[in-house]
Design a protein that fits this description.
Strand order of the largest sheet of chain B: 7-10-13-6-14
Distance between the termini of chain A: 13 Å
Helix content of chain B: 40-55%
Strand content of chain A: under 5%
Number of strands of chain A: 0
CATH architecture of the largest domain in chain B: 3-Layer(aba) Sandwich
Structural class of chain B: alpha/beta
Number of domains of chain A: 1
Order of helices and strands of chain A: HH
Strand content of chain B: 5-15%
Number of helices of chain B: 19
CATH topology of the largest domain in chain B: Rossmann fold
Largest interface: A-B, 22 and 20 residues
Number of domains of chain B: 4
CATH class of the largest domain in chain B: Alpha Beta
CATH superfamily of the largest domain in chain B: P-loop containing nucleotide triphosphate hydrolases
Helix content of chain A: over 70%
Oligomer: heterodimer
Number of strands of chain B: 14
Distance between the termini of chain B: 44 Å
Structural class of chain A: mainly alpha
Largest sheet of chain A: none
Shape of chain B: globular
C-alpha cells in the first residue's frame, strides 16, 4: 500500500460508477440489436468491466476492509 | 451533452448516435459555450457540477444563442429539482441516475432523429407511444398532467391496445428515481399473490427458504404496474387496499412495517360498467386505484394512426432482420380499412406475418390474405362497411369472405351471395388479375 491517502468515494461517485455500468449495458444491448461490429461491442463490455472492477476495489478497501 | 465524466459521455453519446441523432460532447463550461456559439441544438443534456464552473453558467449561453433548445439536467437526486427550477425555469426536465435507454428515448422523442424513421415523422411520445390522432394527443395531455402528480392511475382499454406502454409512458414522464416494476395479476397463482406483492420472510411458509422482496418494495420510489388487476380474487383485495391506504407493507411471515412510496398503475380490459355490475373490483379499492382513470381508444377509432404504427413495426423488423421491405400504398390502404379488433398487437402480428410471407428480392411487403387473428374473426363484418371504402372494395371483401366461409365451395358461395356461379368466377379472376398487377408494379 502506498503512503497516499486512499481515495474515498462519496455517494455521488458511487452512483456515477453504477450509472456508467448501466449506460454501457444499454449500449451493448443496442449494439447487438443493430449488429454493430464485434470489436465495438467488446470495447463497451471492457468499459463496463473496468467500472465493475473499480466498484469491487472500493468495496474491498472501504466496506469489507 | 455537457458532462465531465468521460466514461458516461462516451457510452451515452454512442447510444444517442445509435438512436440516429447527432451529438456533441463538452466536458467543461468553456467547451459548452464554444459549441453553443458554433451550432444550434434541439436538446442539451447538462451536468450541474463542471470542472470550471456550474451548469447554470452554460444556461446563459443557451438562452443567448439557442433559446429553443430543451434543457435536461443530469442529476443523481431529485432533491435538487426545485432549486434548479427556481434558477432555470419550469420548462426543464431531469435525467435521473441511473439513466437507462428508456429515459434517453423519452427525452429524444422531443426531436426527430437524423435519417430513417424521421422522414415519415414517426415520433415516440414519452419514448414509447406512437400516434398523432386527436385521441392520442388527448392521451399525451392526460399523461403529462398525471405525471406531475403521484396519483394512482387505472388504465382501461381493450386487449392489445397498449395498456402497459401507457403505464411505461406515465413512468417515463414522471420524474421518479425508482424502477418500473410490472406484474400480471392474472398470471400469479392465488396462493402466491400476497408473497409476490408484499414479499415474505424466510420460513414464512413451506418452501420459503429465503427472504423475498415483494413487488411493492422493488418499486419503491418508482412505479408498480399491476396488469389485469381485476383478475385478483376479491378476498385478496383488502390486503392490497391496506397498502394503498397506509403506504406500508408487511412481508408475509414478518411483523415489521416497511414504508413504500410508489405510484400504482393498474390496468384492465373489463369495461367500466362490468367493473361495478360484475364485481371485478371492490368499490373501496377502485377509488384507491382509479384516482385518475384513463380509457384507451381502440385502434379502429383512430385509423389515421395505422400507417404510423405499421411503418414503425416495418422499420423495427427491417432493422432486426437486416431487410429493406417497404409498404406500398395499396397495402397501407388495406391496413387502414381493416377493423383491428385485436388492436395494435394484432397489427404488429399481421406485419410480422407479412415479413415471413414476403419475397426478399422484391422488397415489397406482401400482407397476409387474412389480416385477422383467430381471436378476432367475429369482428370482421364492420370492416367492410368502413366509411371511405368504394363499392368495389366492399363487394370484393364480401365475396372473398363468403368463399372463405364456405371453405372454397364456389357454387355454395354463389348461392349465398345471390349471384351466378359465372359471375363469381369472373369476379375472382378479376381480383387475381389486379393482385398480380399490383405485385408486378410494386
Amino acid at each position: 500500500m502506498s503512503d497516499q491517502q486512499p481515495e474515498v468515494w462519496d455517494r455521488h461517485q458511487l452512483r456515477n460508477k453504477i450509472n456508467n455500468i448501466t449506460m454501457n449495458a444499454e449500449l451493448v444491448k443496442l449494439q447487438i440489436q443493430q449488429a454493430i461490429p464485434e470489436d465495438q461491442v467488446i470495447a463497451s463490455i471492457e468499459r463496463m468491466l473496468t467500472e465493475c472492477k473499480d466498484c469491487a476495489s472500493y468495496l474491498n478497501e472501504h466496506i469489507d476492509g | 451533452m455537457v458532462d465531465d465524466d468521460q466514461s458516461f459521455t462516451r457510452s451515452t453519446a454512442e447510444i444517442i448516435q445509435l438512436l440516429k441523432h447527432d451529438v456533441r460532447v463538452a466536458g467543461s463550461v468553456e467547451q459548452a459555450n464554444q459549441c453553443l456559439q458554433q451550432e444550434t441544438f434541439d436538446v442539451v443534456l447538462l451536468d450541474i457540477m463542471l470542472p470550471d464552473g456550474s451548469g447554470f453558467e452554460v444556461l446563459e449561453s443557451i438562452y443567448r444563442h439557442n433559446r429553443s433548445a430543451h434543457i435536461a439536467f443530469i442529476t443523481g437526486h431529485l432533491a435538487v429539482k426545485n432549486i434548479i427550477r427556481s434558477v432555470a425555469g419550469p420548462d426543464v426536465s431531469f435525467l435521473l441516475k441511473p439513466i437507462d435507454l428508456e429515459k434517453i428515448q423519452a427525452l429524444l422523442s422531443r426531436v426527430a432523429p437524423q435519417g430513417g424513421v424521421e422522414q415519415l415523422g414517426i415520433r415516440r411520445h414519452f419514448g414509447v407511444l406512437i400516434g398523432e390522432s386527436p385521441a392520442m394527443r388527448e392521451l399525451y395531455n392526460m399523461i403529462d398532467r398525471v405525471a406531475e402528480s403521484r396519483a394512482n392511475v387505472l388504465i382501461q382499454g381493450p386487449s392489445g391496445a397498449g395498456k402497459e406502454l401507457v403505464a411505461k409512458a406515465i413512468h417515463n414522464a414522471s420524474e421518479c428515481d425508482g424502477a418500473f416494476v410490472a406484474a400480471n395479476c392474472g398470471a400469479i397463482p392465488t396462493d402466491l399473490i400476497a408473497s409476490e406483492l408484499f414479499g415474505h420472510e424466510k420460513g414464512a411458509f413451506t418452501g420459503a427458504v429465503s427472504r423475498k422482496i415483494g413487488l411493492f418494495e422493488r418499486a419503491n420510489g418508482g412505479t408498480l404496474f399491476l396488469d389485469e388487476v381485476t383478475e385478483m380474487p376479491l378476498d385478496l383485495q383488502p390486503n392490497l387496499l391496506r397498502v394503498l391506504e397506509t403506504g406500508k407493507v408487511v412481508r408475509v411471515g414478518g411483523s415489521e412495517e416497511i414504508d413504500v412510496k410508489c405510484r400504482v398503475l393498474s390496468a384492465t380490459n373489463r369495461s367500466r360498467e362490468d367493473l361495478a355490475s360484475k364485481r371485478y373490483l371492490r368499490e373501496d379499492i377502485y377509488f384507491r386505484l382509479a384516482v385518475f382513470p384513463i380509457e384507451l381508444v381502440p385502434l379502429q377509432k383512430r385509423p389515421e394512426d395505422i400507417p404510423l404504427l405499421a411503418q414503425a413495426f416495418v422499420d423495427e423488423l427491417n432493422q432486426e432482420q437486416g431487410t429493406n421491405y417497404q409498404l406500398t400504398e395499396p397495402a397501407l390502404k388495406r391496413l387502414q380499412q381493416y377493423s383491428w379488433p385485436g388492436n395494435v398487437r394484432e397489427l404488429r402480428h399481421a406485419i410480422q406475418r407479412a415479413f415471413i410471407l414476403s419475397d426478399f428480392e422484391t422488397e415489397t411487403l406482401r400482407l397476409p390474405d387474412d389480416l385477422g387473428s383467430p381471436f378476432s374473426q367475429e369482428s370482421k363484418a364492420p370492416a367492410m362497411l368502413q366509411a371511405g371504402s368504394t363499392i368495389q372494395e366492399v363487394e370484393k371483401e364480401l365475396i372473398l369472405a363468403t368463399v372463405k366461409a364456405t371453405d372454397g365451395d364456389k357454387p355454395k358461395a354463389a348461392e349465398m351471395l345471390g349471384i351466378s356461379l359465372k359471375t363469381l368466377y369472373n369476379r375472382l379472376n378479376q381480383y387475381q388479375d389486379s393482385s398480380d398487377l399490383s405485385m408486378e408494379s410494386g
